[in-house]
Design a protein that fits this description.
By secondary structure, the protein is of the alpha/beta class. The chain is built from 15 helices and 17 strands. It has helices at 3-9, 29-40, 54-61, 90-103, 139-155, 161-165, 187-194, 207-211, 233-245, 264-273, 286-293, 325-330, 344-353, 383-389, 403-406, and strands at 21-25, 44-48, 66-68, 82-85, 106-109, 122-126, 129-133, 172-176, 198-201, 218-221, 250-254, 278-281, 307-311, 334-338, 361-366, 374-379, 396-400. It is globular and about 80 Å long.
Length: 413
């Protein structure tokens, strides 16, 4: 029978399973994949299986599902609204499907979809939409079409008419753009960026994403070049508020995460004070992403039990500094310095003076995750000289600690 003929036999419907008993026979990886969406739909899920995967067991221990630690027995579907059988035993699956037919309970057979009374579509979510695709027993085809449709919705290729009618989103979205590589922005961040009327962007925000914006989008440069010209934070706040009050949807695009030394909360407070709704979209922080892409785990079992992220915009002896450098020097784990390149000599000396070994490994990464990435390995007592000799310039991340020696072979993503 052709795929087209199979598709015509299926009736795609949305089931309200809130509080209703759903029986899943089998606790392996197939069940593990299906359970989260059933739980998310509010179903009262009962798993029947003598063994389950660790993830399924964790769901049971957390009270998200109930687990009967035994084999399936006739009568287990009594009172069920929906059933899935996904054991490795075809005879058991056939027995479950047979009971389901007798009790008029829709049942999915994971091992032989055509022999069940229901099939599971390829499902995905986008901005409140639940997208389901059936391809007549061709799961790879349905998954590929689902993924393509979701990508098209996220990119704006396929229009969401209701979202457009609702005026997209009101106010301002504070979007963390990630460490620099345009592919490291979050899915939600990219989706909101595609729906912006106005984009207020920092110098460290992913620049390639701006080139993808429609020509009618107003792009405002709020570049804060280190130790050079800077847009006043008050001016940035005013721009966000004024454009939003004029009925525009404004995306404030920053590098990294808006709340990690990015003044994102200051901008949120300004918007709230003006009565402007704010959506916060966290970003991938450069403090962790840049070391990872450069091949260094900021924590590693048996090497570091703590990681501290420190702003280096003021020196260790500056009266404005809020950092206890003597206490920081006594830690044995990882220190990640942001905005610290200009004062790297002072920071290194403060740490050595406080007791950190002078030969502590250091990695400095400039333009992390970007095509122009440049990394220098050194030690705490020599890093200031190495930075000058190698011509390292901001933006750069400084990673200090024994974890630097763990990743001697960078593994770029």
């Amino acid at each position: 029978m052709s795929a087209e003929a199979n598709t015509e036999q299926h009736y795609l419907a949305g089931l309200d399973l809130v509080g209703r008993r759903v029986v899943v026979v089998g606790g392996g990886t197939v069940a593990q994949r299906r359970l989260p969406r059933l739980v998310g739909a509010g179903a009262a899920v009962e798993v029947i299986s003598p063994e389950v995967t660790p993830s399924v067991q964790s769901m049971a221990e957390a009270g998200e599902i109930s687990w009967r630690e035994r084999r399936y027995a006739d009568g287990d579907l009594d009172g069920a609204w929906y059933a899935l059988t996904c054991t490795s035993d075809r005879e058991v699956n056939a027995a479950v499907a047979q009971e389901a037919r007798q009790r008029r309970v829709f049942c999915v057979r994971a091992d032989a979809g055509a022999q069940g009374s229901a099939v599971t579509p390829a499902v995905g979510e986008h901005d409140g939409l639940l997208v389901g695709v059936l391809a007549g027993g061709a799961p790879r085809r349905s998954a590929a079409v689902r993924d393509g449709l979701l990508d098209a919705l996220r990119e704006g290729i396929v229009a969401d008419q209701q979202a457009e009618a609702d005026g997209v989103l009101p106010g301002v979205a504070l979007v963390g753009g990630g460490p620099g590589d345009p592919e490291l922005i979050t899915v939600r961040g990219r989706r909101l960026l595609a729906r912006a009327d106005v984009v207020v962007a920092d110098r460290l925000a992913p620049r390639e994403l701006l080139d993808e914006l429609p020509p009618q989008v107003e792009v405002i440069d709020a570049a804060k070049i280190p130790y050079g010209r800077a847009a006043s934070q008050d001016v940035i706040n005013s721009v966000l508020v004024d454009r939003a009050l004029a009925g525009k949807f404004v995306v404030r695009l920053k590098g990294g995460d808006s709340y990690v030394f990015g003044r994102g909360y200051e901008e949120l407070l300004a918007c709230v004070e003006a009565g402007v709704p704010v959506t916060v979209v966290p970003g991938v922080s450069s403090a962790f992403a840049v070391p990872a892409v450069a091949g260094v785990p900021v924590t590693h079992r048996g090497v570091a039990h703590e990681v501290v992220v420190v702003s280096g915009h003021v020196g260790p002896d500056d009266e404005r500094s809020l950092v206890d450098w003597s206490a920081l020097a006594k830690l044995r784990g990882t220190i990640v310095l942001l905005m610290a390149l200009q004062r790297i000599k002072a920071f290194a000396e403060a740490l050595v003076r406080g007791g950190r070994p002078a030969d502590t490994p250091v990695l400095v990464v400039a333009d992390g995750t970007m095509r122009t990435e440049h990394a220098v390995r050194s030690t705490l007592d020599k890093v200031a000289v190495a930075v000058v000799e190698q011509g390292i310039r901001p933006p750069a991340i400084v990673i200090i600690g024994p974890v630097v020696a763990v990743g001697d072979a960078p593994a770029h993503g």
